[in-house]
Design a protein that fits this description.
Blueprint lengths: L5 E5 L6 H18 L7 E5 L5 H8 L5 E4 L17 H6 L4 E4 L2 H6 L4 H13 L3 E6 L3 H5 L3 H17 L12 E4 L13 H18 L1 H6 L1 E5 L4 H8 L6 E4 L6 H11 L1
Parallel strand pairs: 1-2, 1-8, 2-3, 3-4, 4-5, 5-6, 6-7, 7-8
Helix pairs in contact: 1-2, 1-11, 5-7, 7-8, 10-11
Bound molecules: phosphoenolpyruvate.
């Protein structure tokens, strides 16, 4: 199955209007400099909410897509102070949104069910959710990686099955395997560790729908750098990366995109 690789940058709570302009210009110039070489990866950048509209203007006319870092689990409009609806993200130019990042799960108490609801809300708004799953270090050490990741994935699949969207809408999602112990720590999963979990995730999806299992893109995230990206992306079930820290440096991010080529 030929899956187009994707590289998405999660800027987290970083940036300013000036810094974002410089970063986006650097990324666009870097990608332009290497375009034409080969059919390349799909590229997404995910700045903080308040900068999305301005980022959309800067990216206009380019192939770089825009994503948000979170979305409200409720659709439409309403009394949800501080929340941002999927329709609003679409309105300002987003095509993608990260849901269930481990920082949201750990720091803001987002449960598997809550992440599943956000996935449905994103899909209902016409966004591509980048759904994050991943185990804690103690869970890995206890040999529970597949169980934890399988549970997180199952919640999303069950919610889709039980909604009018149906399991077929999983085809419109991207999944990101992000072992929590590898995020922002400099300790990357080995390519073999990543492949093992990606193959497990794909297998679980194949059980539900073989076609979707074969075509869905599975990103790896956790301390990906220009220096380790090629090896990770070379694994058969790793279809690109979700990049945190390294997405804040244009040259490094472009080199990672090139590695996903
Ligand atoms: C992330 O937060 O999604 C991430 C992968 O971060 P980092 O690349 O900095 O480990």
């Amino acid at each position: 199955m030929n899956r187009r690789p994707m590289v998405a940058g999660n800027w987290k709570m970083h940036g300013s209007r000036a810094a974002n302009a410089a970063l986006l210009d650097g990324v666009l110039a870097g990608l332009r400099a290497r375009s034409g070489a080969r059919a390349s990866a799909e590229v997404v950048v995910c700045p903080p909410f308040v900068y999305l509209a301005e980022a959309a203007q800067r990216l206009a006319g380019s192939a770089v897509l825009l994503g948000a870092q979170d979305v409200c689990a409720e659709s439409g409009q309403g009394a949800f102070t501080g929340e941002v609806a999927g329709s609003m993200l679409r309105d300002v130019g987003c095509s993608h949104v990260i849901v269930g990042h481990s920082e949201r799960r750990a720091l803001y108490g987002e449960s598997d069910e809550w992440v599943a609801r956000k996935t449905l809300a994103a899909l209902a708004a016409g966004l591509t959710p980048i759904v994050c799953v991943g185990e804690l270090l103690e869970e890995r050490d206890a040999g529970r990686t597949h169980e934890v990741v399988g549970r997180q994935l199952a919640a999303v699949m069950a919610a889709l099955r039980g909604s009018e969207l149906g399991l077929t809408s999983l085809a419109r999602c991207v999944l990101a395997y992000e072992p929590v112990w590898a995020i922002g720590t400099g300790r990357t999963a080995t390519p073999e560790q990543a492949q093992d979990v990606h193959a497990y995730i794909r297998g679980r999806i194949v059980e539900g729908d073989a076609t979707i299992g074969g075509s869905i893109r599975l990103l790896y995230g956790g301390s990906v750098k220009a220096g380790n990206a090629r090896e990770l992306f070379g694994m058969p079930d790793v279809d690109g990366g979700l990049i945190g820290g390294a997405s804040l440096k244009a040259e490094e991010f472009v080199a990672i995109v090139a590695a996903a080529g």
